[in-house]
Amino acid sequence: MKKLFAMNFVKVSSWRGGAAVGCVLAALCLGAFVGCDDDESGFATRPDGTESSSSSSVTLNPSTSSGQALESNGSSETRASSSSSAGKVNCSALLEGETGWNWDVSKECRFNPDIDYGSMTDERDGKVYRTVTIGDQVWMAENLNYADSVKTPSLKRRNWCYNNVAANCDVTGRLYTWAAAMDSVKTGCGYENCSPTLPAQGVCPPNWHLPTYAEWNVLFTAVGGQSTAGKVLKSQSGWYSNGNGTDAFGFSALPAGNRYADGQFNYGGRNVRFWCSTEYHTGDAYRMHLDYLNEKAANPGINSKNDGYSVRCIKDSD
After folding, report:
1. pLDDT by residue (tens digit) across 134-153?
2. CA 216/CA 181 separation, integer angstroms
3. Alpha carbon 27 to chain centroid distance?
């Protein structure tokens, strides 16, 4: 086994409504373990030096970008991704003793190993996404991470990685304003009332679209109803205070957090909000919400179109 040590710097942002506390740099050392193909022992070394024969490993998705620059109000920041397309990550070692969110754990460790996922390739940038069929719907099993503002001008200054750290997008995808999620340049739906033709592709790849309010409710029904949807849609690890789900259907929702219109990033590790293509009125649109506190998946609520939320795409019907 080879030990890989990565030094990561985390920018801590103040909570919404609180006074700004500035930027604090904290050095965190994470010991990750890479399984080698020629290792026949079947044992994984823990950080404390002991061995375990029950470790599991996954091959990293080769589409994961490394050190990608991001656009945020004219400034950019990069961080080298700790993942590699070659080799395997020892997920058991990374997740052992975890009680909350860790940005340095690969998204590959968050998928349900008992689910037979499909896959699709976004022809616009070559990224590969896992997919899952739930009832009669086919969903992406991870959040969208598309940011080409040349091909899609609606994205310019309207999408971010959490805390403006590029490698975070490799884990939970990007946070988009509603105008970006709807591809306002193409649909005319941005910050004024509009009547888009639904389903609306928005920022999703060809043959996929941004889900409507009604399509989210179809998903809730397919997984047993709103009262238990939160528990079965959330990933099996990573949620604050062990507020994890069972991920029974392979939706694998991660606590990506959000970005408010004032530029503050909040609730990473605690909740996730997904945009709907359904508009409420001029300044607000519907979204779906999951959090660590409640097993119940809230009905799509209403929030400012200027906030930054995650996007899950759903496949067009044949």
Report:
1. 999 999 999 999 999 999 99
2. 16
3. 24
- pLDDT tens for 180-230 read 999 999 988 877 778 788 999 999 999 999 999 999 999 999 999 988 899
DSSP, collapsed to helix, strand or coil, labels residue 5 as strand
Q: Any residues with CB less than 8 A from the CB of 205 and at least 6 apart, and which?
A: 120, 122, 123, 124, 146, 313
Token duo for residue 121: 């390739």
Helix (H, G, I), strand (E, B) or coil at 237: coil
Pairing outcome for strands 118-121 and 137-140 = unpaired
Residue 282 and residue 298: Cα distance in Å, rounded?
23
* Distance of alpha carbon 265 from alpha carbon 82, whole angstroms: 22
Torsion of the alpha carbons at 98, 103, 105 and 111, rounded to the nearest 10 = 90
Bond preceding residue 199 cis, omega within 30 of 0: yes
Q: Are 4 and 32 in contact (CB under 8 A)?
A: yes
Whole-angstrom distance, CA of residue 128 vs CA of residue 145: 10
Reported as a single tens digit per residue, the pLDDT across 16-42 is 334 333 333 333 333 333 333 333 333
> What is the end-to-end Cα distance of the chain in Å, rounded?
47
Residue type, 226: Q
- Cβ atoms within 10 Å, residue 221: 12
Residue 86 C-beta-side C-alpha neighbours within 13 Å: 0
- CA dist., res. 286 & res. 274, Å (int): 9
Burial label, 317 (beta-carbon count in 10 A; 0-12, 13-18, 19+): exposed
Would strands 208-209 and 175-176 be described as parallel, antiparallel, or unpaired? Answer: unpaired
- Count of other CB atoms within 10 angstroms of residue 261: 12
CA angle 79, 93, 68 (to 5 degrees): 15
CA torsion sign, 139 to 145 to 151 to 155? positive
The Cα–Cα gap between 160 and 200 comes to 22
